Every structure is written in structure tokens, then in C-alpha cells.
Amino acid sequence: MYFHEKTYDIDILTKQNLHIHSAFSRCANPEMEFDAIIKAAEKAGLETIAITDHVLIENDDFRHNIADLKAKVAEADKKIKILVGAELSAYGINKFTFQNEKPELDYRLWAHNHYHVAGWEHPEDKSPLGYKNHMISVLTALIESDRADCIAHPFHDEYLVNMSNGSVSFEKGSVPDCFTENEIGDLFKKAQMHETAFELNLNVIPHFPKFYRKMYNIGRETGIIFNVGTDAHKLINISTQNCIEEIKKILN
Fold it and tell me: Percent of the chain at pLDDT above 90?
């Protein structure tokens, strides 16, 4: 489990990038090899990174990848803190990667809104309100399970709206717009009780500026811990400085 001192200073928060995919993730660029990731992170002036490859279901390939990463971290001549983590999947209400155990990871990042992935649970009510209620139920079960160090790219519906099968008929941003301040605040209070952080995903925030400004302000009011990640799939995306001025304007 990973925690840092609570802060809402964007310059301090962006010294970490806790959402980086290696080439093990099929969606990542082949250039995302361990040594290249570390070199790019050091060049970007980062102090802490987490390698968080996707895993929907438990499998031996994932276990071997984690063991390999841990061995490389142990051998590396590193100037930064490297966490071996994963982007795990809460793919439905009480439906989790590693259903019966908590994997031995430095950092457990959980996705709750990868609705475009085959096998992901969808609500019967496929309106924005229906998906909002489904997200709340999934997140409540996940947080209460004490599985999560952090919630990845929370609340947004971009993956859902971009599904190729055209099963939803609303515009991007419709689902987060359904969340009330009280609903977000209640989830944040529950997350505090269970020592769960929420991610400020620098790749997503510019697509939903109004919503994430609201979320960030509620987080500061409730005292939630925010972690920063870029969801890097290419080396150029490892740096958190590429969009920092835009992020500051949105959140402050």
C-alpha cells in the first residue's frame, strides 16, 4: 500500500506519476520497456512512479510480469522510487480481479469504468443516470473491500461513449454531470475511512474540465488524498509537466 503526505499543491503532486503502462499492457507502445521508462521518468524530474499494467482476471502471465518487474527494480541503479503495481479491474458490483485475494503489489490502482472491455458489467438502465448509479455501487463495493490504494480516472464516461457497438445514445460527459456534490462527497468520506486515494488523471482532466474542477474542490473540502497519473502508454506521456499549466488553470 502506498500513501504520501496529503497535499493539494499541484507542483508537489506532479512529482509523482502513479499510472504508467509497460509493454506488457497490449495497449502500450512497444517502446515502454523498463529501462526506457525509468530513463524517461528521471529525465522528467519525477520522484515516484508506479508501473501499472492492465489485468482483468488473474493469470500466470501477470504473476510472471510482476515477478520480473520486482527483480528489475531490485537490480536497478535508480534515482527515483519505483512502485510495482497494476491497474486492476472492478468490472461489476463485487466483481474484482483476484476475487479471493489481494495481490502482493506496491500499488493497487483500480479501474471501475472500462465499460468498453468485453465482459464488463453494464446496468440494465443504460441512461446516464443508470450508469452513474452503477458507478456508485461499483465504487462503494470496491472501497469497502479494502482492495484499493487508488481509484483510476474516476467517474468519467469516455470509454463508454466511445464503445464501437453504439449501445449508448448520449454524449460524452453526460454521466459525470449526473453526480451530485453530495454523492461525490459521500464516496470521498468513505474512501478516507478505507485509506483509498482518488486519481487526478492528467490525460482525462482536460476532457472534462468543469467536472474535475468540482471534484477537486470537493476533495479538498473533504480531505481526500489525490494521486497523480498520466495513464502513460508512450514514453512522451510519462512526464507530468507537458500539461501542468493547463491542469492548474482547470483545477484552481
Answer: 79
pLDDT digits (tens, 9 = 90+) for 147-182: 999 999 999 999 888 765 666 778 999 999 999 999
SS3 call for 126: coil
Cα(167)–Cα(13) distance, integer angstroms: 37
Contacting residues for 87 by C-beta, under 8 A, at least 6 apart: 19, 21, 25, 52, 53, 54, 55, 109, 110, 111, 152
Q: How many Å apart are CA 6 and CA 13, to the nearest integer?
A: 9
Rounded to 5°, the CA angle 176-51-110 comes to 35
Hey, which bits of the chain come out as E strands? 16-20, 48-54, 81-92, 95-96, 107-111, 150-151, 197-201, 226-229
